[in-house]
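INFO batch 0412 | record 1 of 1 | parsing
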Amino acid sequence: NKKAFVELLFWKSPVAVCEMTKGYSSLQEGEGPARSRVHPWTPQEEQELRELYWKYKEVEGEDVIAAILAHLPTPGRTRRQVVKKLVRM
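INFO prediction complete | emitting tokens
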């Protein structure tokens, strides 16, 4: 691509750099770095998350997210993933 040098003039995120090096359709095919790490929430996990939130939201002096993470059946979830899912729900 003769015009690729123009893209180098602007700041890039890691996702944009991955697209530039592997091709612009790589993230749509699920080959990008963000797609490989994030596992979708199953309905059972969503229900468990909802129940844990209602159980721990009223506890004084305790971090709600930390309590939820300690009791989630799926140990691979991060704090950010749990917070993002709670906000969406």
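INFO post-check: The two ends are 43 Å apart (CA to CA).
INFO record closed
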